[in-house]
Write a structure and sequence with these properties.
By secondary structure, this protein is of the alpha+beta class. The protein has a single domain, classed as Conserved Hypothetical Protein Mth637, Chain: A (2-Layer Sandwich). The chain is built from 2 helices and 5 strands; from the N terminus they run E-E-E-H-E-E-H. The chain has a 5-stranded mixed sheet, with helices on one face. A hairpin with a 2-residue loop joins strand 2 and strand 3. The protein starts with a strand and ends in a 10-residue tail after the last helix.
Length: about 90
Amino acid sequence: MLAVRLQPRAGENALAGWIGNTVKLRVTAPPVDGAANTLCITLLSKLLAIPVSRLALIKGVHSRNKVVRILGLNLQQVCARLDRPSSRLNA
């Protein structure tokens, strides 16, 4: 599970860093008709180098704060691919 803070209508699709244990993503899509959610999953797929089918939005469909289930990667792999030392997750 990965906590995500999403910023829709941003200037670019990008990883914007970490807020505690939550990854912050910026997407260009507006929060209308699920466009921002779809782009969020697509961006995470690219950042983690895994197929979209291994990601599922399980909480926060109508919120900026989301929880995404990631199949096939452990915590250390997710942190490495998102450029965060796993030892800092409890900080």
